[in-house]
Design brief:
The protein is mostly helical and 353 residues long. It is 69% helix and 3% strand. The chain has a single domain, classed as ABC transporter involved in vitamin B12 uptake, BtuC (Orthogonal Bundle), CATH 1.10.3470.
């Protein structure tokens, strides 16, 4: 009976609501479409088309787990995409050096975020939005407000970051799978990852237990900046060109996926695999709307409604579940559970499931 109860809990909407919503979306479009929708071609299209959005979401996830908001991701992708295209197109630098320099630009954006958020203590949503605007402006300056293109962008570089495939599943999908696996393991199975989660849960309690809060958040912002640069490299390789402001459209989908993913598995905890599921669930709905000839504005409505529905229903289920009646708990809450501090001592900060 205990194992059956555990199975029911693990399969509840509260745990894997995205999966059930995803199934409904697939069934609805399979019924509405005159051409077959539930095919391997659809699977390939969704995974290939939305893996870049998944990479952007991974860049947002790490800072969010540490209690900061990195809204500079759009400008990061725009600037690093343009920088990579300019370096490849106008210099004779090896691809490896171009990649390193582009990742360094992403790290520099992360450093700028650290200065405004960790050092100057400007609220992260405001400070990183300012960095987004600056990075976007720099993408215009670097490109001369022109589309940057070169045959070098579609050759070996394109194969490395976008065009190589296995059974027509392109390489960015594998980047995303590897990243999600690494991030998932690090956040849940390592002292540094648990410290990051603890800081995001409650900064003051984490500080009182001996965790170096500023170091944890600084590390998260640097990693987020470099992952944003990886997304910029993939974008350049996918379209074999770069244009200023090209990354701006990834900001809201990335945040939607991260918040939606936090409603899955261990409720109210930012989750790498929950984020991946959210990306592709949202992508399936948007792809289905495109195939159905829906107006151009409808995918954004679907994305917003899916986010509201999933989080809203999860909150309702939390409120109605045994021992959790009354007001809905805050998005983050504390329970006593050992987490290693950076000095190796045990603290009592963790995130509830």
């Amino acid at each position: 009976m205990e194992s059956l109860a555990r199975l029911r809990q693990n399969l509840s909407f509260q745990r894997i609501g995205i999966v059930y919503v995803w199934i409904v979306v697939i069934v609805v479009f399979a019924i509405l479409k005159s051409n077959p929708f539930f095919t391997i071609g659809t699977v390939r299209a969704v995974l290939n088309d939305y893996s870049l959005a998944g990479l952007a979401a991974m860049a947002v996830l790490i800072p969010m787990a540490s209690g900061t908001i990195d809204a500079s991701i759009g400008g990061n992708i725009s600037l690093t995409s343009v920088v990579a295209a300019e370096l490849l197109g106008s210099t004779h630098l090896p691809i490896a050096i171009v990649v390193i320099l582009t990742l360094a630009v992403g790290a520099a954006i992360g450093l700028a975020n650290i200065i405004v958020v960790v050092v100057l203590k400007i609220p992260s949503i405001i400070g990183t939005l300012a960095i987004w605007l600056i990075a976007d402006a720099l993408s215009v300056a670097v490109s001369g407000n022109q589309i940057v293109s070169s045959t070098k962008l579609s050759g070996t570089f394109g194969s490395y970051f976008a065009l190589s495939n296995w059974n027509e599943f392109e390489i960015p999908i594998f980047f995303l799978i590897i990243l999600a696996t690494i991030i998932g393991v690090v956040l849940t199975q390592t002292p540094g990852g648990r410290n990051t989660t603890a800081v995001g849960l409650n900064l003051e309690v984490a500080r009182n237990t001996g965790i170096h809060v500023r170091a944890v958040q600084a590390r998260a912002l640097i990693i987020g900046g470099m992952l944003g640069a990886l997304a910029g490299l993939v974008l350049t390789a996918q379209v074999a060109s770069a244009s200023p402001g090209s990354g701006d459209g990834y900001l809201l989908p990335a945040f939607a996926a991260v918040f939606l993913g936090a409603t899955q598995f261990r409720l109210k905890r930012f989750s790498a695999w929950g984020t991946v599921l959210a990306v592709f669930m949202l992508g399936t709905g948007q792809y289905g709307l495109q195939l159905s000839g829906a107006p151009q504005w409808t995918p954004n409505i679907f994305q917003g409604l899916a986010l509201i529905a999933a989080i809203g229903l999860s909150q309702i289920l939390v409120t109605k579940s045994p021992g959790r009646k009354g007001n809905v708990r805050k998005f983050f809450s504390i329970r006593k559970e050992p987490v290693l501090s950076e000095q190796g001592a045990e603290s009592s900060v963790s995130i509830t499931s």
